[in-house]
Design goal:
Blueprint: H1 28-32, H2 41-54, H3 57-62, E1 79-91, E2 98-109, E3 112-125, E4 128-134
Antiparallel strand pairs: 1-2, 2-3, 3-4
Length: about 140
Amino acid sequence: MRGVPRRDSKSASAPCPCGLPATYRECCGRLHRGLAAAPTAEALMRSRFSAFSVGDAGYLLRTWHPAARPARLDLERGTRWTRLEILETTGGSVVSTEGTVRFRAHYTDNGEAGCMEEHSRFVRHEGAWTYAGAD
């Protein structure tokens, strides 16, 4: 997924991009700021979508499993991530060590609407959920 830096647009009252009924600051913003860790694979997926939406490449790299993490991540400026749909989850609970999340992410790219679907794998690394790649 690609995104554009928008951190300054996420005020305390802005809705969270992940789609949960909470503000960005109290939802995914807490994870992005390091005040909390994702308790489930789905929560990590949602927070990563929000990171793409607000342009937080550092969070995306920190939550990528080290075996699959790219050396750098350049987010595309013309892409705006607009909506996330969680289609299916397996495993990934607070007591699991691995899980998957199938999702659909909606975006506009230079004004043109689109969506992508992915089946993502997540594993715990040093106790924290990490993104391990896509199937």
